Amino acid sequence: MLSLQLAHQLSGRHILLVGAGEVAMTRIPKLLPTGCKLTVIAPEIHKDMWKHFDVPEDDDTVEYTDKHWSPEKNKVFQLFRREFRNTDIVLHGNGLADSADAQSFLNGELDPIESYDHSKASGWHMILTCIPDPVISERIYRGAKLVLGQHVLCNVADNPPLCDFYFGSNVTLGKGGKPIQIMLSSNGNSPRFTALLKNEIERQFGDLPIGESVAKLGQLRARVRKISEENCPATLSKPELIKYRMEWIRNCTDSFGVSHCHEMNVDKTVTLFEEMFADLSLEQPDNETYMREYLE
Amino acid sequence: MLSLQLAHQLSGRHILLVGAGEVAMTRIPKLLPTGCKLTVIAPEIHKDMWKHFDVPEDDDTVEYTDKHWSPEKNKVFQLFRREFRNTDIVLHGNGLADSADAQSFLNGELDPIESYDHSKASGWHMILTCIPDPVISERIYRGAKLVLGQHVLCNVADNPPLCDFYFGSNVTLGKGGKPIQIMLSSNGNSPRFTALLKNEIERQFGDLPIGESVAKLGQLRARVRKISEENCPATLSKPELIKYRMEWIRNCTDSFGVSHCHEMNVDKTVTLFEEMFADLSLEQPDNETYMREYLE
């Protein structure tokens, strides 16, 4: 059975991490750059974790909330230095509206676009446990499903049956600007081979000038779109126009390949498009011609 | 802001797909191999989608459920040939327990491991819409959050603010057996460059004998574990033993690299481990030696 790999947008979402030891440490660098509102609950804090809190290590506050938290800050939002309590499942609410409002929607009496303020609702978006006690872990998992619904996402470290998802192995290429994030997962079957493949991808593609490539592809796309729409023959429908344009760009960028997009001469390439669009041709130059004549 | 990439385990989970046109078609090959219990609701069905239903195309049943569905079958579980209705949000329940049970758990009176039958609870695990009507799409999104809680995962095609996650671009290497799944995402910034990179990864690594590599790495790991535990010196703690073993295997497999693990001579490599473990040495042979002496 395969997994469904998804890229979650978590800015401002509440996430609960129970535990603050070595395993929890591996979760934090994946979570904080998403801008999520992370709460950590644990009686003992790994010494290397303090850099992720905007509170000094020698501060002995038991319950700490970062009043100046923002998604860009890359810091933990809340720290509770104590054991987990059942009521932590609803620490920020249960994410549900009034059951009367829900019923009105189901009856067709309430339009949730117009007459319900979703910004009031909150609750955990995801719950992760990284503690060495399997019974407490399972209680958190089962309790969360009981109170928040079967669909709340949970991950109990080291207990695959209690993991709605796995983290996989990650590489980020083109750091800064507009990176490409890559996840590799063997669904637990071969973590070592997955790590080797991850290293190889990082080695081969880690130095690609992704920012420049993305910028050039963006320019090409915008100019090709403008030209094609301004000069669209009356015989061509809108879907046909879009189809032609997409196919042309795909053929062209496939020739430049992942290693040469950043060197593209956008002006010359746009001129080529103009000529070919006049005949609605898709007979592109071969790769060598692209490399010889359409790079800077 | 980065995304959190996760590999979801969906076997037997209810997933709702509203719409059955070209965009919906692109979702189905990602969903069915996970073994999820997929329900499709749409008045019109794309002609190429019929192969995913275990019902003949000329069947004019409005509501169809596959009585013989199983996760391995790779087919849609349910088809409703009609417009979406608000009550479809709770078609399989809301995933929640009795609110009295939930309250008892929060009070510490109910142990959800011992005294609550989670198998009774159901509901959508995820809701995807792929319909051209943005108002109905938003109503589904807002209604789902209202009734099922803010944490229910929704994706409204072509409407990024109403997407809790993106699908990204996927490659599966080593199909059959134990594959490695890869997702690439630029978080919407550069789909064309992401596609180029995906093609390049597929071109370069698509023919790797991953099954063989995984099998050999599995053998190596099992034998190294056995030898190290049977011959563990009294001075070495369990965590120290695990650390040594992991570091030794990492160094060794890094030398074989992604391209040569399948050719590893496991017997000779295990003998090397035995010799090095006697001295707790981590001074591994260099890559060339590994390539010359430890391949089959």
TrEMBL record, chains A, B:
The keyword tRNA-binding does not apply. Pathway: Porphyrin-containing compound metabolism; siroheme biosynthesis; sirohydrochlorin from precorrin-2: step 1/1. GO terms for molecular function: ferrochelatase activity; precorrin-2 dehydrogenase activity. Keywords: NAD, Oxidoreductase, Porphyrin biosynthesis. Transmembrane segments: none annotated. Pfam families: NAD_binding_7, Sirohm_synth_C, Sirohm_synth_M. The keyword Cell wall biogenesis/degradation does not apply. GO terms for biological process: siroheme biosynthetic process. This is precorrin-2 dehydrogenase. It comes from Lachancea quebecensis.
